[in-house]
Amino acid sequence: MPPRAVPEEILSKLCYPEYWERPISKWGNVNRWDQFFTEKNPNATKHISRSSFGVELQTLVRNLEPGTRAIEKAISMQHGLKKAGHTVAQLSSDDPPPYNGPSRKRSRDDEDEERGEPEMHTPLAPGNFEELTFDPRVGQMLLPYRRILEEMRRHQTEETSKRARHLSVMLMWSVVDQSLFFKGSEPVASVALPRPAVNISLLESVLMENQSERIQHAVMIMRNLRANGVMDDASSGLRRWLARLRGICYIIDVATVLSAITSVLVCSLTPCRGPGSKPSENNIKAQLWTKIFQDVFLLGQDNIDVNWEYHHQIPGNGGTGSARSDFAAVILNEADQQFPFFIVEFEANGLSVHKDAMVAIAETAFEYNRILAAAPYLSEDEVNATCLHIGLVNGTSIRMGSMKAVYNETKESLIYVYDADKAIFKLRTGNQEADIASALVLMAYLRRNVCKDGMVLKMLLKRKPKVHHGALLAALPRLPKQAVKSRPHETEFTPKAKRVRFIDNLLNY
User: Fold this and answer.
1) Which segments of 236-386 are extended strands (E)?
2) Where is region (Disordered) located (predicted)?
């Protein structure tokens, strides 16, 4: 028989020990307590029930051992009681909770509570707890993954516990980390970066017209890149035909290549507040990234639109404004509704974890739900073939990630799998040749990989007839109604007093 979550000596201090003798997964919430209390006291009001509930929870929090699942659940229930608009202070001496058992001896803790003495044993405030809940259709499938997260959350090293908190935020949005979700299976093949090909002769003639030494120096850089096998020459029609036939490289038009070269070579990052300060996020965005993103998508052949400061219409954010991405490449359906397939968040001078990483992942999951709900009838294979992309820009480098749907039509379950490390591109390392090469590969990657997935989604959204799949709509995950906020990045690790503790009470070992 498993040990009790609440020790016998603590149960003796409670007015209703029979409720707390249950397993933690059976404690439920405020409504379950109300049902239990009404059965015990048929004539009691809801105010008395919840006031009694608050007293019970305070006794548990004051006496349970810190760090246990029992106290985490108790504090989470305190938070739920507070959300319901009731606190322990609402219990007056004129309205005591009904109790038929023996009188309990007043303790020194009770006297301290009446005098307003601070509770020294509460590890975290109730508002710092989040309870993880799951749809029954996916809860069992995620059981091994949830156990891994529980072990990581309890780990003593800061890096591991921090990652567990971030993964728990992702899990609230039905997103799992690919490296952990497929742990133990065959490793997922890494993406092969395309090798760019350019019409070298035409590019050189355009570059030589400019009198700037920096631009003319680009001619020598392009010749070196070709000689070192970093890029190919697509000057002749035969070479272009062979390149397309073999698929060994991706041909980029000269106009787009010029955009990459000028963005890298002419980029002037000036301190935002004078000597000693660093370039601002807006300065880096305008000098380096704006032209690259604009020309990659707008000068292509796929009729893709871009949207700076894209608003995600996440429910529950109407009062404060919906979530907003710095950049999004979007496709349109027949009603001209925008659906982003590439979302970018910017920061400058960031730390090891991007301040908007969880923000971008949550926004992408929300948009994925929108796309799958708006597309006409989709089969299981079609859903699993879709993909959205995420770009996290930190200064002059970008980390590319992707999110894919994993849909099981038979079990009516759907989750999103996030791969954080598709590729990293650094565009300002001090080596101009390496910087231009990285910019060209980035453009080829965006055109070949990202735009390709965007066009797949565009085809699905415009397909006829407009018949929606009921099973897929039922399988779409229920996402939170409030957007994730950006993480303050003054320190590498969030102070313990401000950390959110995630509780998975339905996790049975």
Assistant:
1) 250-251, 305-312, 323-332, 338-347
2) 81-131
Best CA proximity match to 412, nearest among 461, 335, 472, 352: 472
Q: Tens digits of per-residue pLDDT, 336-382? A: 899 999 999 998 877 677 888 999 999 999 999 999 999 888 999 99
pTM, two decimals, is 0.75
- Other beta carbons within 10 angstroms of residue 14's beta carbon come to 20
Residues 124 and 495 sit within 8 Å (Cβ to Cβ):
no
Exposed, middle or buried by CB within 10 Å (0-12, 13-18, 19+), for 402? Answer: buried
- Round to whole Å and give the CA distance between 347 and 355: 7
Between the alpha carbon of residue 243 and those of residues 10, 123, 181, the distances in Å are: 75, 63, 37
Residue 142 included in any domain: no
**Pairing of β 387-394 and β 323-332:** unpaired
In a domain, 59, yes or no: yes
Residue where the block lists tokens 């990630």: 401
Count of structural domains within the chain: 2
Evaluate whether residue 145 is within a structural domain: no
User: Structure tokens of 437?
Assistant: 């090469």
Is 413 within the bounds of a domain? yes
**The last residue of a domain, from among 131, 146, 169:** 131
Distance CA 313, CA 318 (A): 8
Domain boundary among 131, 159, 188: 131
| Model confidence at 384: pLDDT above 50 | yes
State the DSSP string of 8-70: HHHHTTSS-HHHHTS-GGG---HHHHHHHHHHH-TT--HHHHHHHHHHHHHHHHHHSPTTSHH
Extract the tokens encoding 302. Answer: 């796929």
Give the structural domain span for 459. 279-498
